[in-house]
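Hey, I'm writing a tutorial for new members on how sequence and structure tokens pair up, and I'd like a real worked example in the thread rather than a made-up one. If someone can provide the structure for the chain below, I'll link this post from the tutorial.
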Amino acid sequence: MKENFNKQRDSGLENTDIPGSGTSTQVRESYHRYVGKKLVFLVSMLFLVTLLSAFIVTIGPLEISIPDVYKILISSLFPGYFVSEELPSQIVWNIRLPRIVAGIMAGFGLGICGCVMQAVLKNPLASPFTLGISSGANFGVAVAAVMGVGVIGGPYLMVGNAFLFAMLCALFIIALASFKGATSETLILAGIAINYLFGSLSDLFRYFATDEQLRVMVSWGMGDLSAFSWSNFALLLGVFVFCTPLLYLKANDLNIMAIGDENAKSLGIDANRVRMFSMLLASLLIATVVCFTGTIAFIGLVAPHMARMVIGSDHKYLFPASGLLGALILISADATGMNILRPTMIPTGIMTSLLGVPFFMYLILKRKKKEFW
């Protein structure tokens, strides 16, 4: 009888509704759907970047059939199994593929750093160039082109100068903000001042430059992926491997900082320290990208906004989404610039603005009643 009583008691407990249990289950299911939609979006973006890259490698000013392109790629990976002509092989492996890799890495870096800048500065107009990195890199190129002076000689003269002056600008602003208090307003104002200063100095060098020197400066300032080669891949990859995980580890801190520095401090987050650390890593990553690609604007500003419109403001998902959208926009713009007016190639920086601005304005007007920031 005791065993029967226990069975009846357990059965009764199982069938008893616990207050709030249904609500808790609904909340969990809603959260899983919420996370699932974000993961689906990230996987979709990764698939689109892969698919678009596979298509872009088959198009270019020189007509090479799609089977020949992939035969060249396979023969490079598995030599001896396929035979390919020398000229098409050089074009595919040393021109088209490096541009695609550079576009993916540069777009990903610009997107992530734009997301970081907008988060730490709490400003929807912030971009990787808010700290004056672009103007500093332009000034470094101007010094190399006009005076021939740089920290590194030979073919890396302009690249070395661009990186050096970009980092010097970022470090100067970060040091100034640390001295005066690392508030978002201080960083923005310091970045504006540095932009004007080095922009004026670059204009001064352009005024005294010869036609050839001016052409070099203008060409670099428009932004182009052609300067990237396989010899630069290891350096750029190393900076990505170092900076990107460290920035991602600050995603939760940036989420908390969105409610205000004082509230974040009450939860154990030192907002100033997080702000300076994130800005330093973002500056290092952007300086490395800029010194190889030149000034490519718009990506760092728009990619985070597009990602935020789709998946919200949780930086655990917003970081990779901004990077993937930046990569997608950049390789699309570069492929369009290479092929729209063959054999003339339009600089990548021009195409990013021409293609991205109308689409961005469309998204803003379509969902203008919703606040995303």
